[in-house]
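Progress report, Aim 2. The chain analyzed during this reporting quarter is listed below.
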Amino acid sequence: MTRFSVLDLVPVREGGTLAEAFAAAADLARAAETAGCKRFWVAEHHAMDGIAGGATSVVLAHIGNATSTIRIGSGGIMLPNHTPFQIAEQFGTLDALFPGRVDLGLGRAPGAGPELQRALRKNLHQAAEQFPQDVLELRALLTGDVELPITATPGLGAKVEMWMLGSSLFGASLAARLGLPYAFAAHFAPDHLDAALALYRRDFQPSEALDKPHVMVAMNVFCAPSEREARTLASSQQQSFVRLRTGNPGKLPPPIEDYTDTLPAPARAMLDHIGQAAAVGTAREVREAIHAFIRRTGADEIMLCGATYDPQDRIRSLESTMEALEAVPAA
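Predicted structure tokens for the chain:
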């Protein structure tokens, strides 16, 4: 049975505040829990006016306090931005506060220019090259499976579920080698989806954490009473993506009807490409698109993504999606 979860970037909308963004994230997490979602993940981004999840572990504590049963986690922590010891302490703390509920999704991409590198006091590209060794060190700090000269407290003994994240063959290969569950970011980088999942399943080596491959794939989902309304809801995120790709990022803008009709051909092609991993439409249309995506990927879990300008619209979209998925079992 395929399970469903939610990824939230904690968007800050135009005319809105950080406090409103954090409150909206908690509301969405509660709605996801009520709707039967398995996980609620927050992604790490820095120095972006429209995304408030930079202090990811702090945001997760806020989400954990707002909920009671749903798993909370990082989708993901960009480990080159940190030291393994710091992350072990942070997620060991989260595990002590919310036992049995904490996921630690790890990504390699530093995603940073020279200004952020200076701010973080790190050579992020060099740190990215050390990513596999840092993952092993972090796992050892949590599990104690390798003796280290220092103990993370909190950290050692924490029952944190580690995940490998990726959008290329590198993450798939590392997840397979370490016997970790694997989450693919098809919602913004679908190019290597099929090849990465095939490689991960082919090369998977069982570990103490996982005895067989386990795949989660992220996709953008916008559900509304009509297809036109769903496409309008999706336009806020589409605008943000186009602005980001053209070097003009900002806060989440209000929706625009028929937005894609106003775009030049290259921008439309870019959005169409990302749309390979999307379900936008009525409840029936969304259900059919998600089931087709599950048949394509064989995913054990689907991560539902998609920011809306009005936070209540995303909650309604999520609730409608989950109701639609319950109506007919997945293939």
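The mean pLDDT is 95. The chain has twelve helices and nine strands. These observations will guide the mutagenesis work planned for the next reporting period.
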